[in-house]
Amino acid sequence: MQTHRPIAREGRAPLHAGEAGDAYCAPAARPYVLAATILASSMAFLDGTIVNIALPTIQRGLGADITSLQWVVNGYLLMLGALMLVGGGLGDRIGRRRVFSAGIVVFALASIGCALAQDVGVLVAARIVQGVGAALLVPQSLALISANFPKAIRGRAIGTWAAASAMTTALGPAIAGLLIDAFSWRIAFWINIPVAVAAIWLTGRYVPESRDETARGAVDWPGATLAVAGFGAITYGTIAIGAEDGGWLAGAGAVTAGIVLVALFVLAERRAANPVMPPALFRSPVFTGGNIVTILLYGALGGSMFLLPFDLLARRGLTTAEAGLTILPVGVIIGLMSRWMGGLADSYGPRPFLAGGPLLFALACVVLALTPDNYWLGVLAPMVALAIGLGILVSPLTTAVMNAVPEGRQGAASGVNNAASRLAGVFAIAIVGAVASLVYGARAPAGAPRFGILPAPDDASRTATEAAFLSGYASGMGIVAAWALLAAIAAWITIPKEGTPRRNGPQSGAHREE
After folding, report:
1. Is the pLDDT of residue 2 over 90?
2. Geometric angle at alpha carbon 448, from 323 and 428, rounded to 5°
3. Of 88, 145, 304, 467, which is least packed with CB atoms within 10 Å of its CB?
4. What is the pLDDT of residues 432-479, one digit of tens each?
5. How far apart are CA 324 and CA 334, in angstroms?
6. Within 242-319, where are the H helices?
7. pLDDT digits (tens, 9 = 90+) for 167-186
8. Residue 326, Cβ density class (10 Å: 0-12 exposed, 13-18 middle, ≥19 buried)
9. What count of Cα atoms within 13 Å lies in the side-chain half-sphere of residue 98?
């Protein structure tokens, strides 16, 4: 059982004894603890969606090519996904508030670096540092809620955190789009600073320190290093293969090296005392299947959301604000449907939802790939269908994954599943960006601008360049649709119709510790 040792200094929120000897912050401080976690985690979640909307504007402002833009997104996601599990373990050992605060500071300083960047290389470097900060603060958000709210009210607190995070994620792109149109793409990073200052002040004033006294052994730094190096090499190689200046040899070498490093990571995890990715979890077929569905579906989501803004802004001529409003239904519909779908999955089993949702997602991506000129039928209707597909499966997928592991292993299971979703986005963006760039480069007329930039409508080369762009865009969206279809097939094969009862302990042979 976890215990939380308070080490808050005088002047911080006092602690009250809770059940089983746990200590929680005073009731009057709890709203401020919740506010601090919502502000910080929403800042990190929002950054992914807002930056996607800003990519075409960044491309024009910094003269960036598609390869650099892939790294603007992937530098952040790679560090967040690969280091998230380490961030959680670090907080358990040296103090959750300490790691949470450090993550906010790192994230804020990196945001300033992004906002001030005068070339894309500096922007990518700052985004990588942002990912490190997010990997420190995101795992601590729920950990701090659990450490400061008794079980009787913890569910309500987590529900409030989830609802607030979903709402900010849904509204963020639209609001950011208005600000970017009014000012600059740099505002997407400057807006993090007042949020970070508020979160730091609330944390320092109201959040007591806590840690897990049962945590033993060192953090798995070797495993984390191998994960970052391996996944990073594969990402670099995939992007290099699709680079405009050609990079097949270097790209293939990097992918090969990355595969070797990932294999070493898997071997290291089997021997590690505190693995960041516990191999025992994958002895459950449902857990393994659920993570395969996660990788395929969230890869499809990441790839589609990377490509879509180029069509909206460059080809259709939408403003950044209009593009943000176009994506708005995704967050809103998921938020409205998740609780309802979770209850239906409890009654009828998760398999129909985990298969049906990706099928609808795949159909929506096919329509987006066909690029009908009519905005309402060619963009908004498939975006609503895509959002409904996600709304159908998000809650049942999480429930299936969490129910497949024994009690006491949910934290590790959640961490692995979250990391899988982030890393899936990294690889998806690398792959669809490379494919779109290669197809575009093969069909674009001589002297055409980079992928994602089209000549003026009255330019003589506009028709040929737009045709090449549509070919590259459709190729990428076609791959995304295929991944969603594979996710539906994987769900039907691996997820039982009746669902998986929650494991009550590690006694099952399928879940013994390594």
Report:
1. no
2. 50
3. 467
4. 999 999 999 999 999 899 899 999 988 999 999 999 999 999 999 999
5. 16
6. 248-271, 285-309
7. 777 778 888 889 999 999 99
8. buried
9. 14
Q: Which residue has the higher pLDDT, 151 or 403?
A: 403
Kindly give the interhelix angle for 320-348 and 151-182, rounded to the nearest 10 degrees.
160
Query: What is the Cα–Cα distance from 481 to 382, expressed in whole angstroms?
Result: 12
Partners of 16 in beta bridges? 24
Say if residue 489's pLDDT is above 90.
Answer: yes
Residue 165 has pLDDT above 80, yes or no: no
Predicted confidence band of residue 245 (pLDDT cuts 50, 70, 90):
low
Question: Do the Cβ atoms of 413 and 281 come closer than 8 Å?
Answer: yes
Cα–Cα nearest to 115, from 106, 101, 127: 127
- Which residue has tokens 């908004």? 380
Q: Give the pLDDT score at 242.
A: 77
Q: Two tokens at 71?
A: 């790294």
Ordered DSSP codes for 367-407 = HHHH--S-HIIIIIHHHHHHHHHHHHHHHHHHHHHHHTSBT
SS3 247: coil
Q: Are 173 and 88 in contact (CB under 8 A)?
A: no
The span from the CA of 353 to the CA of 334, in Å, is 14
Long-range residue pairs from 502-509, CB within 8 A, at least 24 positions apart, any chain: 502/402, 502/403, 502/407, 503/403, 503/404, 503/405, 503/406, 503/407, 504/406, 504/407, 505/406, 505/407, 505/408, 506/406, 506/408, 506/409, 507/406, 508/406
Amino acid at 246: G
| pLDDT number for residue 506 | 39
Which residue is it, tokens 């510790």?
A: 513
CA 114 to centroid of chain Cα atoms:
19
Tens digit of pLDDT for each residue in 293-337? 999 999 999 999 999 999 999 999 999 999 999 998 888 888 788
Query: What predicted TM-score, i.e. pTM, was given to this entire model?
Result: 0.84
**Maximal C-alpha separation, the chain:** 75
Is the pLDDT confidence value at 8 over 60?
A: no
Which residues lie closer than 8 Å to 324 by C-beta, 6 or more apart? Answer: 53, 172, 173, 174, 175, 176, 177, 178
